[in-house]
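Re-run with default settings, no changes from the original entry. Doing this only to confirm the output is reproducible before filing.
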Amino acid sequence: MILDIALKRHATVCIFCSLVDLFVLKKRSHLKGSLSVHYIKPPFPRSFKGKFHILFAHLRQLHLTSHILSQKKKYDVYFVDQLATCVPFLRLIGQTRVVFYCHFPDKLLANGAFVEGQTFTKDVSLVKRIYRLPMDWLEEITTSM
């Protein structure tokens, strides 16, 4: 929706991503404005043997953020989707506005605390709770910035 509005207003939009759905972007190609998509291949996998998804997601986003910030180009605003890990870096180093759009906190999804309008808890192993502690802390700190 934000992309549609920006392109209708003839804004120049640069999308940086480590995973891209070209079909979604091609649907918007009829809109006026300038849209460029920059796929930055991350050095990290999405998971390791089906585990550690959130850890690798944070690492992939930090890699993407370091790529963006290493460029000479300045942007008027950064729109960040899903993970807020990069928000402090974009604000402090990029020195521009950041809009964070969170679909739903991973902290609540990972432990099954809220699924499809229902609030409940599920048993989570001690190992997973220990793994989630720094991830949940990072999410809380960065989304509050």
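The helical segments are 2-8, 22-27, 53-69, 87-92, 106-110, 126-143. The chain is about 40% helix and 20% strand.
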